[in-house]
Amino acid sequence: MLAVDPDVLAGAYTSIANGTLWPVNHGLGDTPAFDDEWRADWERYVAYNQQFAEAIADEAATGAKVLVQDYHLNLVPAALRRVRPDLRIGHFTHTPWATPEDYAQLPRDVGRAIVDGLLGADSLGFHSPRWAEDFAGCARDAGASVDVPLRVHPLGVDPAPLIERASQPDVAERVSALRAVAGDRKVIARVDRTEPAKNIHRGLLAFAELLRSHPEHLGQVVHVALAYPSRQDVAEYRDYTADCVALAEEINEEYDAAERPPVVFEVRDDYADSLATLSSADVLLVNSLRDGMNLVAKEGVILSAHAALVLSRETGAADEMTEALLVDPLDVDATAAALHAALTMTDADRSARHDRLAASAAALPPQAWLQQQLDVLSEGI
């Protein structure tokens, strides 16, 4: 833990990491103006990374293994390599990596600096082969030679502690409360942060289209969405949250179902409630625009023994969870059709798919995921 100057933190974390690199990596297309103010924030990002590199250099034992995590610290590997060439350095990116087309939005010198910063590592890790391939393409376009191994470590979940936590009384109480609201209806569930990349708004539109195109589901299904407030200090995120709440209310008003609304949309941070929601799912909806992995998809199939999964192709999880009903996250009609298919799936098909999904979800739990990264840093020593 470092004491970072508040101005440096605001520029590095809010402006560059979350305001620039996050939308570029997720293909959101809303990069800021690259003006003098942004350039000052970029220098703060450089300073922020340098501060971490110096602290690690002071702390690390001779020949130590160093694991650097995520896009906030893209410059640390090269900065650390310059002062501590004895260290074995790994970097893991938890987001997707930008396509070369999206990465080209960055100023060319900045794009090259990020690539060079990461190539100071001995190993670069990603959740999906697609993200590794995109990094390689961006590096080539920036004029860099990729002589660092690009490895894929697809993070999974550890079922035992997750199931144990979900068995606690506070979760059981919330499951009972949810079942009282749902009644005999099937539950289409989602648990997400309220940010545009999670695509909650199109998910609601898809549910509305499901009811219109298949009216036999009206009164037989409820969409339960638990949305964690995310970055509510940013106007765009507040507006997106408000738009999702308003759309949920519009759907409920359309069907005039005050006592049994077809949508239950809650905006709050409640881990026990999220476990209860996932445990109660007959269908789990994950339609992110782009996600490095998406652990909710994996947690959901572990917690619900009978859930069918409707999953965006643009998640890292889609590489492994091929028994899901995969959808284009921009295609509302296709998502509605996938929800219908999930609701009407035979018990035998649902069970067979679920068993394979659960096995995929638990294939590389956090302990093994971490050990893989440590092991590859031992290579060549």
What secondary-structure arrangement, pairings included, does this model have?
Elements lengths: L5 H20 L10 H24 L5 E5 L6 H8 L4 E6 L6 H4 L4 H11 L4 E4 L2 H13 L8 E3 L6 H8 L2 H14 L3 E8 L6 H14 L7 E8 L6 H20 L8 E5 L3 H9 L3 E4 L8 H9 L4 E5 L12 E3 L4 H13 L2 H15 L4 H13 L3
Parallel strand pairs: 1-2, 2-3, 3-4, 5-6, 5-8, 6-7, 8-9, 9-10
Helix pairs in contact: 1-2, 2-3, 8-11, 9-10, 9-13, 12-14
Description of the molecule:
The protein is of the alpha/beta class and 381 residues long. The chain is 51% helix and 13% strand. The strands form two sheets. Strands 7-6-5-8-9-10 form a six-stranded parallel sheet, with helices on both faces. A four-stranded parallel sheet has the order 1-2-3-4, with helices on both faces. Helix 6 links the parallel strand 3 and strand 4. Helix 2 packs across helix 3 and helix 9 packs across helix 13. The radius of gyration is 22 Å and the shape is globular.
Average the pLDDT over all residues and give the rounded result: 95
Structural class by secondary-structure content: alpha/beta
* Proportion of residues in β-strands: 5-15%
User: Based on DSSP secondary structure assignment, what is the total number of beta strands?
Assistant: 10
- Written as H for each helix and E for each strand, in order along the chain, the element string is HHEHEHHEHEHHEHEHEHEHEEHHH
Spatial strand order of the main sheet = 7-6-5-8-9-10
